[in-house]
UniProtKB/TrEMBL annotation:
Protein's GO biological process: protein-DNA covalent cross-linking repair; proteolysis
Family statement: Belongs to the SOS response-associated peptidase family.
Name under which the protein is recorded: Abasic site processing protein
Keywords carried by this UniProt record: Covalent protein-DNA linkage, DNA damage, DNA-binding, Hydrolase, Lyase, Plasmid, Protease
Presence of the UniProt keyword S-adenosyl-L-methionine in the record: no
Superkingdom as given in the UniProt entry: Bacteria
Gene3D superfamilies recorded: SOS response associated peptidase-like (3.90.1680.10)
EC number: 3.4.-.-
GO MF assignments: lyase activity; peptidase activity; single-stranded DNA binding
Alphabetized PANTHER family for the sequence: ABASIC SITE PROCESSING PROTEIN HMCES (PTHR13604:SF0), DC12-RELATED (PTHR13604)
Length: 223
């Protein structure tokens, strides 16, 4: 399960890659993000009410309420930062998969192996650039049902996952985030649910590489 990723792509480069016009860039002065954790804010590309691509900030992870088993008092809500491809029809994900799909800009993602201490592995795309930019397949929603306080009003995104490819499998045997090819961005955003489901597949291992490895590597700077 991916619970940490980075997006160190420059804002102008994101607009170019994801075909977002300047007036629909809602990020303000966005800074590189070498470590994005659940509940943190990060850039997301979605369709606005007129069907145009816009870049906005969203918190990572659909929120659900949580209470203490001992006291019954509310606790910090859970953040569901991953959505399994085979569970896309379940209640938490169904409506967003049908009509609120998005692109999540990224430059790498981390998976951890082992315990006490775990070894961190950062995965990125292969290419001439140090961290070629890409997009994870995402879902989003406005407001968090039954979650009180400011967090209940958050706009959140979650990341689709699928079977691990040959590069990721030795680190995380079962799952990896869905990475979309640029030619599939439009289908993911505007296609039918059936067309979108066909894109939920492992990214080719030969087009990826491990860019950082070690204990305590909980961020992925460009250098």
């Amino acid at each position: 399960m991916c619970n940490l990723y980075s997006n160190t792509t420059a804002q102008e480069a994101m607009r170019s890659l994801f075909d977002v016009s300047l007036e629909l860039d809602r990020l303000g002065n966005a800074q590189p993000l070498p470590a994005i954790w659940p509940k943190y804010e990060a850039p997301v590309v979605r369709l606005d009410t007129e069907g145009r691509r816009e870049m906005v900030m969203m918190h990572w992870g659909f929120l659900t309420p949580k209470t203490s088993a001992k006291t019954g008092k509310p606790l910090a809500p859970d953040a569901w930062n991953n959505a399994r491809d085979d569970k896309r029809g379940s209640g938490l994900w169904r409506a967003s998969f049908q009509s609120r799909r998005c692109l999540i800009p990224g430059s790498s993602f981390r998976e951890a192996k082992g315990r006490a201490p775990a070894t961190d592995f950062w995965f990125a795309l292969a290419g001439e650039e140090e961290r070629p930019p890409f997009a994870f397949a995402g879902l989003w929603r406005q407001g968090q049902p039954s979650v009180d306080g400011e967090a209940g009003q958050w706009v959140t995104h979650t990341m689709m996952t699928t079977e691990a490819n040959d590069l990721v499998r030795p680190v995380h045997p079962t799952r990896m985030p869905v990475i979309l090819a640029p030619e599939d961005y439009e289908t993911w955003l505007t296609g039918t649910a059936e067309e979108a489901a066909a894109l939920l597949r492992p990214y080719p291992a030969e087009r990826m590489r491990i860019v950082r490895e070690g204990i305590g590597m909980t961020s992925d700077p460009m250098s």
